[in-house]
Amino acid sequence: MQGPVQVLAERDVQVALSLSEPPQKNTSPILRFTPPEGGAVIVPLSGAGAAWAGTLRLRPDMGSGNGRFSMEVADDLGNAGTRFSAGEYLEIYNTEFPEAPQAPQALPPRRSREGRSI
Prior knowledge:
mainly beta
């Protein structure tokens, strides 16, 4: 997955989903994206076996911050798959620049070997 993604107008982002094993026969995984603002959207997927891909349409009204992917899938034995090994979050922002992270607070002073503060 990529990030952060600027969303000043509607735009599409390609997503890939690699499963550790194929889903049950005649089923496909369900992938959802919950943006920082608003409800979850389903990402339409196509593929077969363990390799799936889709297009996520992002809109400015989805807000700024981390959105989260979730999935529903079951293997041939009915074991549910809901966890990601990577790429669970996608940072989006609907401004010219993303908001800078907050500066660290109350860092303790450190001394060099010579006794100077660093």
